[in-house]
Amino acid sequence: MQLVLDQIAKTFDNKKVLQGAGFTFEKGKIYGLLGRNGAGKTTLFNCLSGETKMDGGKALIEENGTTRELREQDVGYVYSLPILPEFLTGYEFVKFFMDINREKLEPNKTPDDYFDLMSIAEEDRHRLIKGYSHGMKNKIQMLLFLMTKPPVILLDEPLTSFDVIVALEMKNLLRSMKQDHILIFSTHILQLATDLCDELVVLNNGQLSPVPSDLLRSPEFEASVIELLKDESHAEDA
Ligand SMILES: Nc1ncnc2c1ncn2[C@@H]1O[C@H](COP(=O)(O)OP(=O)(O)OP(=O)(O)O)[C@@H](O)[C@H]1O
């Protein structure tokens, strides 16, 4: 399976954020999306998830020799600031989500099976989501996609909110998920990108380009990425 982005364009007011962005992502790999503040990473994710309408271009899924448009239900989107019903407990929410997605789930799984998979402690399962830390909320979001297994999973700056232990658990989880999904995550942390990703993609001047794979683990990697990002003419000074 491949996700093919072709000439994706998005302008806000007079600001051209995506200018013909194209790239092919493959199942079985973790992709890191790098770009400066304001480069358009979230905008690209929003366009792919259907949250923002793109002005031009296409996102296609190619599988078993057939091509079709990417649909909203193909995409699992882990937001940097998770949006969850704060008035429910984690358990209530997961149970509700399981009830409405019953046909997509593996039979005989219980909410606790999923909490176990995410290493969410027993005592936390029955607390209100309102009181969860940022990292816990991200975990709950990830848990939803473990259940429904959308083919494309987008993670917007996901691991930055995790402590070292949880970050390691999440890295292992992402690695274990990659054979069945196209995983793309945006990050500003180069170390994380090199550590976790099979490929890096740079969003620069509204376009996507690969970081050559021989650079990924070379000593010149950081300097090369900084060079690639330096000429971002419309990035915001952060
Ligand atoms: N709904 C909107 N209306 C107007 N401008 C927007 C909107 N959404 C994003 N922008 C602008 O588009 C540009 C790209 O923003 P975006 O959030 O996609 O960048 P980013 O690469 O995710 O940045 P960061 O790394 O800081 O999160 C910014 O200049 C932003 O102000």
UniProtKB/TrEMBL annotation:
Keyword set includes Aminoacyl-tRNA synthetase: no
SUPFAM superfamilies the record matches: P-loop containing nucleoside triphosphate hydrolases (SSF52540)
Protein name: ABC transporter ATP-binding protein
Pfam families membership: ABC_tran
Molecular function terms from GO: ATP binding; ATP hydrolysis activity
PANTHER family per record: ABC TRANSPORTER ATP-BINDING PROTEIN ALBC-RELATED (PTHR42939)
Entry-linked InterPro entries: AAA+_ATPase, ABC_transporter-like_ATP-bd, ABC_transporter-like_CS, ABC_Transporter_VariousFunc, P-loop_NTPase
Segments forming domain ABC transporter: 3-228
ATP-binding recorded as keyword: yes
